[in-house]
Amino acid sequence: SEPSFHPRFDDAAIAAEQSPETSKKKPSQRRSVSGGFRVKEDADCLTRFAAGSGWSFLCLVLIITNTAVIGVETQFNTQYALEVALYRQGIGEEIPVKADMNFFQVADV
Length: 109
Hints:
Elements: H1 11-18, H2 45-51, H3 53-88, H4 102-108
């Protein structure tokens, strides 16, 4: 059989987890991960910020904002391409005008 993945590298802890005594844990007992990104107390403020929840929240906001901006940019480009295709087929009445994409060009940088 293939070995299972354990997040810890401590063989004694893995053996203790697999022993019959520890397998009889109460359902209310839960394992938790803490101290995964401990920072020395004398670390600079940038290191402490990067290891804290503030950095995670900032990354979350940036990812969601980036997703929304890409979605809007894609919508504008798709709408323009559709209007051009309809105009070429003789269905569109007005000459399509491409949206001002300066914001998206700056946002891409």
